[in-house]
Amino acid sequence: MVTALVMVQAERQRIQETAEALASVPGVREVYSVTGEWDIVAVLRLARYEDLDNVVTGHLRKVDGIARTQTMLAFRTYSEDLLDQGFGVGLDEGRAEENS
Questions:
Q1: Could you tell me the pTM of the whole model?
Q2: pLDDT tens for residues 24-62?
Q3: Counting beta carbons within 10 angstroms of the beta carbon of residue 60, is it exposed (0 to 12), middle (13 to 18) or buried (19 or more)?
Q4: Is the per-residue pLDDT at 80 higher than 80?
Q5: Is the dihedral of CA 69, 2, 17, 57 positive or negative?
Q6: Which of 25, 73, 79, 85 is 20 to 30 Å apart from 50, CA to CA?
Q7: Which helix (H) or strand (E) holds 71?
Q8: What is residue 57's DSSP assignment?
C-alpha cells in the first residue's frame, strides 16, 4: 500500500468545492481543510506506486480550483496509539484529575 499526502493551494472562492471534488477522486481516502500555506490536504492510499501518476497527474490536474500542489510520499506509518501519545504529552495530568 502506498500512502501519499497532497497539499493543495486552492482559489480562495473555491476551497469548499475543490475539497469536495478531491474527495471524489479514486484513491483519495481523506480530505482536510487546513490552516497555513496550504488550504487542503488530501490523503491518497493506493495499491501500487504506479497508481500515483494516474491519480495525481491524471485526475487531480482536472479538478477545478487547484492553483498549486505538492505531493509527499509516506515511507513509514506509526500506529495511532503512538501518535496519540506524542500529541498528548503533558495532558495526562488533566486526565488524572478528571478520573478522580
A1: 0.76
A2: 999 999 999 999 999 999 999 999 999 999 999 999 989
A3: buried
A4: no
A5: positive
A6: 79
A7: strand 66-73
A8: I
Residue entry with cell 500500500: 1
Specify the DSSP class assigned to residue 62.
G
Which residues 6+ apart lie within 8 Å of 28 measured at CB? Answer: 22, 42, 43, 44, 55
Q: Residue 75 above 60 pLDDT?
A: yes
* Residues in a beta bridge with 98: none
If you count DSSP H runs as helices and E runs as strands, how many of each does the chain have, helices first?
4, 4
Residues 2, 18: Cα–Cα separation, whole Å: 23
Give me 84's grid cell: 496519540
Give dist(CA 53, CA 13) in Å, integer: 28
The torsion angle over the Cα atoms of residues 85, 87, 90 and 92, rounded to 10 degrees, is -50
Q: How far apart are CA 43 and CA 28, in angstroms?
A: 6
